[in-house]
């Protein structure tokens, strides 16, 4: 990412607040701390968890390492799902209070609650592997079929 931006190691160190030696160690493949990922994420203007996932995928060479990368991706999907549920509850709750306060005869809150709720149900079915369409396992099988071999 540093090279894509055309930055030197010193420029990245200045932007991230890290030491140049830390940048050099990370680029040589050594483990980076959580604080370093956060600092780099801020410098590149990306979520630091994306940097961690990309780092895992970049060094994944063995099937076990690939499984770790897939597990990391799944945990991120679960985290996003629960974040979406929290936002849903807050927004629909606020709409329900507003609806019942100003126009209790017509429950307009039911429309967004039902549509958004169905989207969340679909997301839950996919995230928790209740339906396997287009999930990580399906992707893996599709790649295996395409390459005509077992990964």
Descriptive notes:
- Residues 1-51 form the HTH cro/C1-type domain.
- Keywords: Membrane, Transmembrane, Transmembrane helix.
- InterPro entries: 2TM_dom (IPR025698), Cro/C1-type_HTH (IPR001387), Lambda_DNA-bd_dom_sf (IPR010982).
- The protein has 151 residues and is mainly α.
- The protein has 2 domains: 2-59, Orthogonal Bundle (434 Repressor (Amino-terminal Domain)), CATH 1.10.260; 63-147, no CATH class.
- 75% of the residues lie in helices and 0% in strands.
- It contains 8 helices and no strands.
- It has helices at residues 2-5, 9-16, 20-27, 34-44, 48-59, 63-102, 110-127, 136-147.
- Helix 5 runs antiparallel to helix 6.
- The longest helix has 40 residues, at 63-102.
- The chain is flat, with a radius of gyration of 22 Å.
- The relative contact order is 0.06.
- The model has no long low-confidence stretch (mean pLDDT 81).
If you average the pLDDT, what whole number results?
81
Helix/strand structural class: mainly alpha
Give the N-terminus to C-terminus distance in angstroms: 28 Å
> Any idea what the shape is?
flat
Strand content: under 5%
Helix amount: over 70%
How large, in whole angstroms, is the Cα Rg?
Answer: 22 Å
Query: How is the main sheet built?
Result: none
The poorly predicted ranges are: none
The count of helical stretches stands at 8
InterPro entries: 2TM_dom, Cro/C1-type_HTH, Lambda_DNA-bd_dom_sf
Protein name: 2TM domain-containing protein
Keywords: Membrane, Transmembrane, Transmembrane helix
Domain HTH cro/C1-type: 1-51
